[in-house]
Specification:
Blueprint: E1 17-25, E2 28-37, H1 47-66, E3 75-77, H2 79-85, H3 93-108, E4 110-118, E5 124-132, E6 135-139, E7 154-158, H4 160-168, H5 176-181, H6 185-200, H7 211-218, H8 226-238
Antiparallel strand pairs: 1-2, 2-4, 3-7, 4-5, 6-7
Helix pairs in contact: 2-3, 6-8
C-alpha cells in the first residue's frame, strides 16, 4: 500500500515517502506512519517494478503449489520467465537489464513502521519501530550462491513476514493479464489499494478519499483546478 509510486519514471531525487494508515483501536481512531526509504541509486519503486513483482508472485505461488502448499525460500526464476509473463520481448538486452535493476530496487528499499503492541485487555504495552525489506537476500544469475556454486538463475529469499503472509493466504487476487491491459500507470497503481478501500467500505456501498490524500498516497502532483485534476485522473479512473 503506497510502496509502488504511480509513475513510469524513477524519481531518483526522492529521499523518503511517508504513508499514513488509520486504524480503530479500542474505539479510537489512531494513525500509524510508515516511512519508505528508497534505493539511493534508483529511487522509489514504480509501476514497472509493480508489474515484475506481480509476475514474481505468480512464480512463487506456482512453487508453493508444487511444494504441497507451503512456500519455502528461495524462489528461483529466470529473467526470461518474468519477461514471458509480462508479454515482453525476451531477445532484448534492455529488458533483461531492467529485471536486474528491479531486483536491486526491491532488495534495497526499506520500510520503517511505527507500531504499538497491546495486551489482551487492549492496553498499550509498548511502542516502537520495525524495519524490514521485501526481500531478505537476492542472488542474481551469474553470482555466487552460499554453497559457492554459480547461480544458474535468480534466487530470491522472501522476508519472513511476507513468506508467512503468503503461506497463511493473506493475499489479494489480481488477474495479471487484465492488469497488463491497463494503459495508464495511475490505473495500475490503483488496482491494489482500490481492492482494500472498496472492501473496507462495502457496508456503505461506496468509497471516497480526499484528493490530496490520494495524491500523497500515489506520489502524484496536486493540481488546483478541476479541469487539470480531471485531465490527470480521468483516463485512469475510466479504465
Amino acid at each position: 500500500m503506497g510502496f509502488f509510486v504511480a509513475s513510469s519514471q524513477r524519481n531518483k531525487r526522492a529521499t523518503e515517502k511517508v504513508v499514513t494508515f488509520t486504524r480503530i483501536v479500542n474505539g479510537e481512531k489512531q494513525e500509524f506512519p510508515a516511512l519508505i526509504l528508497p534505493s539511493a541509486k534508483h529511487g522509489l519503486p514504480n509501476v514497472a517494478d509493480l508489474e515484475k513483482y506481480l509476475a514474481l508472485m505468480q512464480v512463487a505461488l506456482a512453487q508453493k503449489n508444487r511444494e504441497g502448499g507451503t512456500l519455502t525460500n528461495p524462489v528461483a526464476f529466470t529473467s526470461a520467465q518474468i519477461l514471458r509473463l509480462l508479454g515482453k520481448h525476451r531477445d532484448s538486452g534492455k529488458n533483461y537489464a531492467e529485471v536486474n535493476e528491479w531486483l536491486d530496487v526491491l532488495s534495497s528499499t526499506t520500510f520503517i513502521v511505527q507500531a504499538a503492541a497491546y495486551d489482551k485487555e487492549g492496553k498499550k504495552r509498548r511502542e516502537g519501530r520495525a524495519r524490514f525489506h521485501i526481500f531478505d537476500t537476492v542472488v542474481s544469475y551469474g553470482d555466487f550462491l552460499e554453497s559457492g556454486k554459480v547461480a544458474d538463475r535468480h534466487y530470491v529469499f522472501f522476508s519472513k513476514w511476507q513468506q508467512d503472509n503468503i503461506n497463511s493466504g493473506y493475499l489479494l487476487t489480481v488477474d495479471l493479464q487484465s492488469f497488463l491491459q491497463l494503459r495508464n500507470y495511475i490505473a495500475k497503481s490503483l488496482v491494489l489499494p482500490l481492492q482494500v478501500w472498496l472492501y473496507a467500505s462495502r457496508d456503505r456501498g461506496y468509497f471516497e478519499k480526499r484528493y490530496d490524500h490520494l495524491c500523497h498516497h500515489l506520489d502524484l502532483t496536486q493540481y488546483h483546478y478541476l479541469s487539470q485534476i480531471k485531465q490527470k485522473l480521468g483516463p485512469s479512473l475510466d479504465e
